[in-house]
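Hi! If you just cloned this repository, the fastest way to understand the data is to look at a raw example. We've pasted two of them here, unedited. The first protein comes first, obviously.
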Amino acid sequence: MKTALIGYGYWGKIIEKYICDSTHFDLVAVCSPELDNKGICTNDLEKLVHDTQIEAVFICTPVSTHFNICKRFLEAGKHIFCEKPTVKTSEQFQILKNSAEKTHRILYTDYIYTVSPSIQKMKELLEKIGDIQNISGEIRQFGRFYDEDDVFEVLGIHLLSVAAFFLNSISVQTIRYDLWDKGSPCLSGRIEIRFDNGTIADLVCSSVYPDKIRRIVVQGTKGTLIFDMYGKHTLRYISYSRQSHICVPEKEESWQFDERNNLQRAIEQFGVLCNGDTDPSNLDLSGYVIELLDRRKEFII
């Protein structure tokens, strides 16, 4: 499938290799304003919009540009792989979703944690831990930030996507975004979500932390699941029971999954969808995540 890459900054250069390695896609154009019109490189976005040979595009531009670029290419009948988050607001996402459905094209957002083998296994094990009481997560690092995107859009979005992946769009009762960093953009903060089923999610994200931390804990009434990307084991399961005022561990299992190829897995999933798979889960999850992110302007304190 002939494919174009839109945006050739830090992430665009990373994703280029994975597109070229994919058996689903043939990269025929790379578009970015600073590129010369030479070889497969171009700065002419309109040319690619109207190129009937291009069937899919990968969008790695700033989030503020996603809506207009996605809209143009969907209307031109092309499949979209978009870096997270898809857009800035729920209204924008609904317009894109309607366009994708009208043109029968795929609108796929790269929520890379949802294709992680550890997170996938974690979801399989959820029924073993009973009713989910709490989801706690943290992503911390010294890392890149962008003038128009706060830490919730850059890092917190991963934690929101995992919560949505686990809870299957259960309605939210309340959501609160706490800004720990009063700079612009905000580089550290906390998200607390109370779902209608009683589950509480407590999510921390920071771009001003000296160590890399990727950790998610799901506590249930019968056990706990722990994802730790940089731990001795990427996933642990511990069952327990309550006996005479003490919680007693009963069983523990652990797994070590390879988390280095999740972008490859996401591109493979996108390729399968472009070739006829009708699974709507990524589109539905993307809409739910944008709804959660969009609501931060109502509850920031």
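Ok, and the second one:
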Amino acid sequence: MRDAEGVISFVGAGPGAADLLTLRGAHRLATADVVVWASSLVPAEVLEHCQEGAVLHDSAGMTLEDVLAVYDAHLGAAIVRLHSGDVSLYSTLTEQMMWCAEHERAFEIVPGVGSLAAAAATAGVELTVPGVAQSAVLTRLGGGRTATSMPDGETVAAFARHGTTMAVYLSAARPESLRGELLAGYAPDTPAVVVAKASWPDETVITTTVDGLADALAASGIRTAALVLVGPALASSGRSRLYDPAYSHGCRRRSAAGATTGRPIPAAKRRRP
């Protein structure tokens, strides 16, 4: 928690909708003296949480050095650096934390609702289904202008061979390449869902298959701010054992034979997590 002056708060702004900002994130904005945000990724409505008089910097046209200069110019100020989605993925957080450590600046990380959670909610799917998929791979398409960012072996094709749920970020601009790599592991009729600008007023959802993905993306005109979900779990049905009457755990005994009513264990006797 921020309890001192001059703290830099790296805040996950959520996937887009202003009301998906966390309570802590909203509080940080409401008490910030300086806010750095990207107009290309974060809707302006999120800034309605800011206090009057807060100094705003749009990082859409800034370099990392420009952003760090803002931090350096406001030594005693409460600063919020707003990142789209959650700061743990594709957020350039590492280099900013390194700068804070080198310059002895206090900082905190305020997590946000990620675009993966928003995309799954918008599409109405669960990413893990018992007996179908219990793992999820989060990755992006290699090559292109950011080819050096991808370590050897971390290709969509390599991950596709696992056959589990995959979420592919930052890749909608190269639909044919994405389709080709996915087909290295998934069957052509494997379900695929494209969600663009999840939770924004103009969000778009396209339901297709791995084989039809390239054509669907090309026809939609979507090139950025899209997440592609792939895997058999997207079109599967199943039931978790956790709530099965025949299953017991630390908070509930298995139901009586032939019954479906739960038999809760008294709170005082439950195993603590």
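That's it. A detail worth noticing about the second one: The mean pLDDT is 92.
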